[in-house]
Amino acid sequence: MRQSRALLVTHGLAKEFQGFRAVNEVDLSVVEGTVHALVGPNGAGKTTLFNLLTGFLRPSGGRITFAGHDVTGQPPERIARLGVARSFQVTSLFPQMTAREHVELALQSGTGLGRRLWRSDKLMRRFSGRAAELLDEVGLVRLAERPAGSLPYGQKRALELAIALALDPQLLLLDEPTSGMGLEDVDRTTALIARIRAGRTVVMVEHNMSVVGSLADTVTVLQRGEVLAEGPYDQVKSDPQVIEAYLGADVA
Ligand SMILES: Nc1ncnc2c1ncn2[C@@H]1O[C@H](COP(=O)(O)OP(=O)(O)OP(=O)(O)O)[C@@H](O)[C@H]1O
């Protein structure tokens, strides 16, 4: 059997904001091919950790290694180029552009041809086959010609996933993929992530524990910037420290 490889590793990762440690000495190891969830009460440092991993914030201390490269303090573009794609919690679509155009543009930007050429129809046709596949993968093939602004919320998020997948990432980072969704969209998105995870590595910040329970191989629980517990969901959810952290947060 192929040995499991740690694709993303952090050692003693830290981030301070004016002397306040939002992320404190975090050691993380994300194994290739797994879904790894980051959970924790509000203010635990999940978003800050995510921003460190993607280069949107520079760490105050520690190291980050991705696929054998030291990416500590590297800018987001470089980390993206190495194969890390991120979907955002807040939607970042162009309302007038169709779903298909979004994916084609993302495919083109991944080729290094530059965004300035994006209006060239001839060029875009080169990407149309793969764009159709990706839209199909996220269940949007029938909505391909709709302006993104007119898509329902759940489908906007699905389109963002297709855009992230267009970069053919080694690692996909999902920032609260089901936030703000009704039950039906939550179920649809969970099924979608279960499908697209095949052959990929996923790190996700997620508040919905049933989503975490059904998708994650490993769960890291953060509290006040530190790793409180880590392991398979069933183990972590019955950890007394984790229960207390969540109950404490609820009471607060
Ligand atoms: N730019 C900043 N300047 C100062 N403090 C910050 C900054 N960003 C985050 N913090 C603080 O760091 C701590 C961790 O915040 P973070 O947003 O990472 O938590 P979180 O786990 O993502 O929370 P939530 O689940 O509410 O999104 C919080 O106390 C927050 O107030």
From TrEMBL:
Q: Which GO terms describe its molecular function?
A: ATP binding
> What range(s) does the ABC transporter domain occupy?
8-249
| Domain of life of the native organism | Bacteria
Q: Residue span of the signal peptide, if any?
A: none
One Pfam family assigned to this protein is BCA_ABC_TP_C
Instruction: Provide the alphabetized UniProt keywords.
Output: ATP-binding, Nucleotide-binding, Transport
UniProt keyword annotation of Transport present: yes
Q: Which SMART domains match?
A: AAA
Entries under InterPro entries matching the protein:
AAA+_ATPase, ABC_AA/LPS_Transport, ABC_transporter-like_ATP-bd, BCA_ABC_TP_C, P-loop_NTPase
Q: How is this protein named in the record?
A: ABC transporter ATP-binding protein
| The organism of origin for this protein | Streptomyces dengpaensis
